[in-house]
Amino acid sequence: xxxxxxxxxxxxxxxxxxxxxxxxxxxxxxxxxxxxxxxxxxxxxxxxxxxxxxxxxxxxxxxxxxxxxxxxxxxxxxxxxxxxxxxxxxxxxxxxxxxxxxxxxxxxxxxxxxxxxxxxxxxxxxxxxxxxxxxxxxxxxxxxxxxxxxxxxxxxxxxxxxxxxxxxxxxxxxxxxxxxxxxxxxxxxxxxxxxxxxxxxxxxxxxxxxxxxxxxxxxxxxxxxxxxxxxxxxxxxxxxxxxxxxxxxxxxxxxxxxxxxxxxxxxxxxxxxxxxxxxxxxxxxxxxxxxxxxxxxxxxxxxxxxxxxxxxxxxxxxxxxxxxxxxxxxxxxxxxxxxxxxxxxxxxxxxxxxxxxxxxxxxxxxxxxxxxxxxxxxxxxxxxxxxxxxxxxxxxxxxxxxxxxxxxxxxxxxxxxxxxxxxxxxxxxxxxxxxxxxxxxxxxxxxxxxxxxxxxxxxxxxxxxxxxxxxxxxxxxxxxxxxxxxxxxxxxxxxxxxxxxxxxxxxxxxxxxxxxxxxxxxxxxxxxxxxxxxxxxxxxxxxxxxxxxxxxx
Length: 553
Hints:
By secondary structure, this protein is an alpha/beta fold. It has helices spanning 12-20, 28-38, 53-64, 81-94, 111-120, 129-138, 154-159, 163-171, 188-197, 228-239, 251-263, 277-289, 322-329, 350-360, 372-393, 398-408, 413-424, 466-475, 500-509, 525-532; strands at residues 43-46, 74-77, 102-105, 124-127, 148-151, 178-183, 202-205, 216-222, 244-248, 268-271, 294-298, 312-315, 339-345, 365-366, 451-456, 484-489, 494-499, 512-515, 518-524, 542-543. The chain contains 20 helices and 20 strands. The longest helix is centred in the last third of the chain and has 22 residues, at 372-393.
């Protein structure tokens, strides 16, 4: 049975930070290294990018810091300023509950900011060898109280010519100190460095998953945070993946995203650390069997899954580092099969994306969010292909051919064929959504093609939420959740976009709905606006909810 973070004897404050960040269980490198570092042992760890090594040394450092002493007690050396910043941020997040002060120092940044931080007093310094050595020579960095030194990506630092800087720094360290050396490879020069400076080091070696597969197309979408769900659903509608994993950073986000997708007509299973084993197995089996098309998961919860046919991986949140990125996208493109990996990136996260690209030595291809026209075109092409296949395979029986022949005696054969497709693809009595190819008739309240807007005399001031509207429409009016589009909520009224057929059904069946214990009246939006003088042009919180696009049967 795999150990938990609690099994590693970490303090409640540190465990709280781990839980807040959404980490669920330690990786192998963490499980092996953390106890050794907590004991004060020197460690030589062979760990590649993608194994979770940052937390493997950051957690023991955070645990052992004496927060009452505002002195540098730990030093982490990294080969690049990007890695130094990343490690510093990780240590800050992990040490937040203990009040750990962390300062990154690296070349290219003004000395003033670094000097200000050093004068204020910090517990941990994370820096590049050159800038750390520069501060030491200037007398602005006092390392006399350092208890632990970490060499991160040691082989890369040696490749970059930092060996003399590293030895200068190590020679200036206190006699009683602990050294942890992390390296993707352990060539002779690393062995030599370890023999010279480490004392009876404990060796740790962890095998890492294969690097990013060439069979996996790696892409990213630049999108504002508020538009992520819209971007995700549009890509899902365009691609129609049969088996996809969506990664979120935290357990809470997994639950929220899963609920949102389910309300929009997707079959989604959610797994994270709070799911018991029996429930986890049941959900995973549904995903393997195809009863759930989407698996929403935290990174750790998805570790070790044996699902070879995952076609798509979506990073709903950009991974914290290259380690997490590699592990996530490794779920697709397996066993020689092709796969797609799409990462959602906000404008503020572009720097983080570039750093990941540098670490994995690959540039991700930028793609745009599909338009409704793209989705309609894809659906029509899929329908055309299905029809051609049916015609060429002779799937249509003699009965259907005879029926068409009879109808063709009184009607244009082209009109007969179009009517049959209309019924099969969403007309009255049909099974699927009608493609949105044209605009609404002039004068009708419209949203996007094929959608109409309804007015509800309730809003935010009455405590109504978008999910309440969806529940009332699907439960009382009996329409499918996939027919509901944008929900614009105002103070005392709400505007809801629904497909034309669904709007007709609502107005015929349930013009009065129940929400939060009060009657809510439904009417066409334009009629109500003209009578009341209200306008929909003012800004309001918007819950984006597009109609679900289904594959032709």
